[in-house]
User: Fold this.
Amino acid sequence: MNCNAVMILLLCAVWSLFQAFSNAKVAPESEKCILKPGQIQRKFVTAFMKNIYVNSKTTFQLYLVTCDKAATVTVTVPQPFFNKTIYIDQDSSSLMTLDYTYMITEEDVTSKVILVTSDVAISVYVFYTQILSADAMTCLPQEDLGMEYYIITPGEETSGQVSGTSRQFAVANGFEHEVQVHITVSGSITYNGISYKTGDLFTLQLENQQVIQFQSSDDLTGTKISSSAPVAVFAGHYCFKGISSKCDILVEQLKPVKNWGNVFAVFPFFAHTQDVISIVAGSPDTLVIIDSPESTTQHRLHEGDHVQITVDKIFLINATKAVMVSFLFQESRSTDLKYNYDPFITTVPPSLLGRKYYKFVTQSFYDNFIFIVSQASSDSDFYLDGKTLSSYPMNMKEFSGFKGWQVTLGKTEGQHEIYHKTSTFTLYVFGTEDRVSYGYSIGQGVPYPEQTQEPECSIRCLPDVAEYILPYSLVSEAHLDVLDIHLKDPLCQAEKEKNHYLIKIPYNRCGSNVLYEDGRTFYANTVYGTIPDTDVHRIEIPVRCEMESNKSLELTINPKVNNVICKGYYNVSMKLYQSDTFTELVTLYPYEVDLHSNLHVELEIESEDEELQVFIETLIASPSLEDTNKKYTVIHQGCHQDLTLQAHLLSDQRRQRLSFHAFKFDNFLQVYLTANVIICHNATSPNRCTQGCIPPRHKRDVLTMKEELDTARLSQGPIVLKSREQSKDDSFYIPPSIFMATICVLSILAVGLVIQKLYYKRQHNILLQNRSI
Ligand SMILES: *[C@@H]1O[C@H](CO)[C@@H](O)[C@H](O)[C@H]1NC(C)=O
Ligand SMILES: *[C@@H]1O[C@H](CO)[C@@H](O)[C@H](O)[C@H]1NC(C)=O
Ligand SMILES: *[C@@H]1O[C@H](CO)[C@@H](O)[C@H](O)[C@H]1NC(C)=O
Ligand SMILES: *[C@@H]1O[C@H](CO)[C@@H](O)[C@H](O)[C@H]1NC(C)=O
Ligand SMILES: *[C@@H]1O[C@H](CO)[C@@H](O)[C@H](O)[C@H]1NC(C)=O
Assistant:
């Protein structure tokens, strides 16, 4: 919720455009990048593992993607030294490319750790790029790293084709000191000249910003890494030979055991029938049940065990203990280049632990696709880059309550956003091109505790009513029901909303009154939580709206929530009328007037509070809204400057009506009117409204007004003068009065609001004790 908007001045055309746009596109802010409490920086630790093809085109491409905040991001490598800081706008992305000199070629510990630090939450994706050998991965933030991992190097290789080593994994330490890394081997690894076989354990130490890469011709799946502090682990193949015999790199950053899952819905991509998943267990006696439309199979696995399954149909994995699942997307060979591509690997995110909002990146070099896995009932509430899913080519498969949507994005470059209004989902992003492909998946391993959505702003001041939000917890802790929450007038009760209770506090009803203290005006009421059929209150929250409409104010609230600043507003309108009867509204702009006729302007506070008063501090006319250097002043500091100006007296002070003679500027065809207004409550009198005109010699009094005047600005126009020729010819000209359109000017004025401290807590405890007796 944006509580900072104090003053907005909008033409309604712009407003409605924005509305249409925002409805379609913008995810609720709270669902964007989820920040964990206390988090100051986002840190990522990554490394460039070996790619078999090494030349100037072998690169490691880091995509840094921002969310709703701009970020300053630094990427560093100790050795070879690299240090680059960039500023990235909000909702944008930036690419940083590291060449092959940053690729790990050493067989021992090196300092080729790539660190990414950002001042706000960002997402980071890595593309291993090479003409013949590519893949991609999602970088896990430092917070998602762990101290226990199992390696997965999936996929059987066709026998006899492979010579030398081709599987690899790497362990990187970013920020910790002297991390002990214990490796329990499955397969075989050589370290420091010593060969370790299945079951052997060895230990090494990583200083901060150090990484070690291991390679082997044996399948290393099941190799266990445990460390004394969180580390990042990457695994794959630097030369994977699948169905054909060409080398291809496969990479993925692995999730630590703590972020594994139990339920995985697995869908074949395209019409593939030879893709393979590997399931690795991390605990003894893990029962893995695999359900498919045709059959159910079971596998009992022990820690480090794995099973490989061909993905020739949709199936659902349900494991009794957390497992890790990786997906090998097989290559395809065809004379049609569209169907000629290499394999990739990615992890299968646990299907029940997704989020509602992701940012991801694609490269225009590839034909890009996404695959969404969700329990959402239909595609209709997904928005991809602001459009509904159905506006993209797609198909859907479904099994056992899980749906998979494969969506074709085409050759697009850069960042994308996808969200669903209510359902969580996990996402695969992949792309194919002649002899290459890439794939990565997104889906959080652990659900960050959905910050118990204690509403950010507990109170809002609207033009006629304040809205007070009570968290469910506050009411349930007091053992009360929604109907027990009311204002001074017990008939004005709270309502249950989706995430909280809401009580509306009209300023002129429900026991609200106006207070005037220390030169300040308040609307006041009290929110009570009353034990039914008694007059005992368990909740008592005095609510006050401070009204100080002649300057921008801040709201301070002191209930349970943190220091929150929230601002209310009034709507004020400025309208033009055809005549001094103020009956026929001018609805068509530019408005054409004769030079020798009058303009009729009305300013009005749209509020039900009859004791409000609007005061026109300044009214100027200018040929453009942007440039007011050339201007004609009609009212200045409340003083009438234009001699033709006539104010119409009205009993209702919420409205001011003025008429004055039309005029024109040299060389300009049109005129805009801009007003600065002040709103007063008559309980505050004497106030600026009653003060009226302040003649220029009282400079001192006026100076303090300077800031405020900018804050309540209304504009109207353009007004065009009918040319003399036209006026003559057009002697039967009828003024435009039949057009129906919306009023086009709105302004929002600041109203401050203060809620006093909660007193209910102490009382609440006493009463609770009473009741439990
Ligand atoms: C990288 O450069 C920034 C200034 O641009 C500096 O503050 C920072 O200390 C440098 N980091 C390293 C690791 O050299
Ligand atoms: C997984 O298995 C558990 C226990 O058998 C069951 O309660 C749960 O509903 C299953 N989950 C799914 C998604 O089928
Ligand atoms: C005030 O303006 C807002 C924004 O256009 C509108 O949604 C609201 O209904 C208006 N309130 C009143 C009381 O006119
Ligand atoms: C404020 O205005 C209302 C309505 O015009 C009037 O009844 C009331 O007496 C006024 N109060 C003061 C303090 O002027
Ligand atoms: C603005 O309001 C404050 C009190 O809220 C008052 O002291 C000050 O005189 C007002 N200024 C004008 C110009 O009315």
